[in-house]
Amino acid sequence: MKAIIISDEENVISKLDESLISNGFDTIIYRWLLKALDNIEEIRPDLVIVSANEYPRHWKTLTQFITSGIGGDKTKVFLLTLSSLGDDETEKARALGIKGFIPSVDEYGISILTDLLMETFPCLKKEEPVEKEPEAPKIVIDKTPYEFEDDEIPTVSALQENRPVIFDPNSASLIFVNPKTGKMITGSVESYENKTVHFNAENPEKTAMLVSGDVIETLTFELDGKVQNYTAEVMMNLDSLLLKLEEIHG
User: Which of 62, 160, 165, 242 is the S-S candidate for 236 at Cβ 3.0 to 4.6 Å?
Assistant: First the structure.
């Protein structure tokens, strides 16, 4: 069974990783939520644990993306809260598809995680412990696209030693033509990673009709002074647009 941990806190990663491995999961660690989002369809994990405190807005987008079936219909999502969400937020989280809440990564929190695993994955109770071969060093995926050349193959040490570059929203701008209205759309880029953009339209009502799967044929994206034209697919339209950029060749 495969589990994805999404966090940038060493203590959180260590405690969750240890618990999941001891319960029979192979783990993959992402420090960048958007990179995890981009790879879930290929990985098709059984479980995703995401830190609500570190990604207070994006965990909702991630959860809806997963529950839409993009990574398969078996993927479950647990939310690491570290602080109380409150009754209203907890109910909203359950409505989005969260299957369990982990209040901490101390002994109490890990015991809650273990109980959730047993309840959510009954097959774990039947498995006998198997002596494993020594594990290879874990690869922690925390580099940004800007740190690799297109033809560079990163080494394990490079992946583990380099920390992600903090994205500066002031370094990016985006403008596109709404394919359904022909109107020019402007706004602000909330985040960008691996050709995936979270975009807040200046006038959200002008993009409200866009849905997952719509293709934007005319889009201009500027990052750190470099301007490039793209097409883009709408992956999700909630509080903001989630766009997947594709370079125009030829």
Answer: 242
